[in-house]
# Entry
Amino acid sequence: MTIIYASTTTMRTPRRDTSDFPRIWNPGRPTAVLLLLTILLAWGGAQGALWVVDMFDGGRTELGANLWEEFRLQSALVSGGSYWKLITYALVHSGALHFFLNVGVLFFAGREVEPIIGRRQFLALTLTAWLMGGVVTWAAGGEMTGFSAVAAAVLAAYSTMMPELEQRLNVFFVIPLRFRAKFYALVVVALASVCLFTGTLAVVGPAGILAGCVVGWAWVKQLGFGNPLWIQRMVFERRQKESRRERMNAGEFVALEVDPILDKISRSGLQSLTRAERRVLEQGREKLGAQSATGKVEQP
# Structure
């Protein structure tokens, strides 16, 4: 899929004055998001209706409670053979707030992610997060309900793909708040970690939410989106440095790489050298030996 980027000027705009992000990569509708929202709304409406029936008949039928118990993921029951709970857990929620948070996140982040990575990739991402959320919760010995693992995966994908995109929210509709999109995933990971280690909100499945975040981040990273990791930058810089050293002749190598190390030896002694600096000295000796063998005199 071709992505069209807006052109930039030579002078950098102050960060606080940046304009809205130009969403011009795909005019298509996020049909996969609409499909998932339809499924969620249908099952959420059904669960809500059953809870209303239970409320009006005094809890005699307990239709909503029965649906809750039959569908929600409990590790002990899954280990006992109720493997369908690895899938059905996502169709029931712990309450209205839990339900509408998942729907809101999926709508907000999904409609931005799907046009970029495509319908098939988006569906594969959500289905993988759905399954992994259940499997990880089962392995962790916990319980889980709701679409939280999928919502976390989509939000993590959004934060990874557009980490510097400015977000503007009004806390309690009054307090303006501005931050970068990357903090969405960081906040979700932090809250899920706290809930997991303290046992808070165990029914929403914090282990599954963390699994969803990892799935969303890894999925779009392997598609080539997001900022490079520090280890990727370190490996790239090391390769660039090695490539530059290989292109140097003996004179250049001695002047730029060996002489600073010799100065260090004169100041602090040979024992102060690092392994990397010792390798540089070895490379310098090899280059000088190769120059002597060819008989060429190379100037820095």
